[in-house]
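Pipeline run #58 for the internal structure catalog. This entry was flagged by the ingest filter as a single-chain record with no existing model, so it goes straight to prediction. Upstream metadata was stripped on purpose; only the residue string is passed forward. Reviewer on rotation: M.T. Logging verbosity set to normal.
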Amino acid sequence: MQLTLVGLSHKTAPIEIREKLTFPAHRQEEALSVLTSGPEVAEAVILSTCNRTEIYAVTSGEDGAGAIIDFLCDYHALDRHDLVRYLYMSEGEVVVRHLFRVVASLDSMVVGEAQILGQVKEAYDHSFSSGGCSRVFNKLFRQSFEVGKRVRTETEIGESAVSISYAAVELAKKVFDSLEARTILVLGAGKMSELTAKHLVSQGVKTVLVANRTHERAVELAERFHGEAIRFDDLYARMRDADIVISSTAATHHVITKERVAEVMRTRHGRPLFLIDIAVPRDVEPAVNDLSGVFVYDIDDLSGVVESNLEERMREAEKAEGLIEEEIAGFEAWLESMEVVPTVAAIRAKAEQVRAGELEKALKRLGGLSEKELATIDALTSAIVNKMLHAPTSRLKELAGEKDGYVYVETARHLYELDDEEKHGVSLLKGLLGRGEKHKKETGESVGA
């Protein structure tokens, strides 16, 4: 078994590629069912956000990453050759470190942002509900949540961080020196739209329009921020009044099209229209940017805005890296403890087999013993075996929790001549984390440390 990661992110792929690999929440359990239906993938979690799509898996066989890539290509009808150059693939301990860094927001576009922890929890919940997680990932992901909490409470990495929604508003401010007299149309009523509305109001915006397919959600959001809810069917009619449209829906297709925006522009008498699209997949058809007087910005255009306070956050990130190394050691210790349990059980089972066999031969030679005498001899031999094994097995459990503890476990198995078929969970650390084996050459960009 092997821990395997295949993914892409804002660091390796532009939005026009990332949006092709998204897994909406309502389809994740179906996707996980397909992914884990074959023999190669035993456990899996799909993390799909606006800036990354990553598949974490416990795989078997020689090419677990290849099986995951095949799944991505088949599920999204993509050409393997076109996709693979944007992917990163890693195995073993590198996967644990990467997950912990992701949850700690060290790999985010906005280092220190708070949303990623909730997004990873949601991804894990989908996997847990669909039966995609078992012993290894239940432990790994729950520990990753503790990593996220520790980093946010033991460092100040989030104190000066900006969010994507905040960056969108900052970009709007760069377009217009002041937003107070501007009309802003927010499309969507999810968490990102809520944060966007909050930041707009904090900047003194007086006119906020909110549109959403479910009108009740638009009303709820508009009321919270003293805005106006408009019906989705009136989107283009009211777009005529807007200076800036900030869009963040969960649609899987383009919501704002070139044809409809062209109609809107004919009624604006030369007034420019700014569209800030922070959705993935994109809400705004890319061709809209070809229209005269229309300026479209997507989530990749926000990278310059989010660099604010970066130096301060990088200092806190160094502290977070230290915490992550501690947590990796903790996860390794857990794996090592899982290795030793079946080994100790196998040692005791073999000792009991020897005891029972030798006792049977001795009793045949003795003959004529009473029930009480038989019970006494049976108890005596059991006590001797237990006392002989207590110290070495207890010590083995202690050593298994130390660095490279799997070496002691494997040595014990060799000394007691335990068969491979008895190993069950043994060599979890060596297998899952790639210990003692050279990692396969990665294709594409490595996740790195």
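catalog note: The chain is about 50% helix and 15% strand.
catalog note: The chain has three domains: 2-160+315-330, 164-305, 340-424.
status: ready for reviewer M.T.
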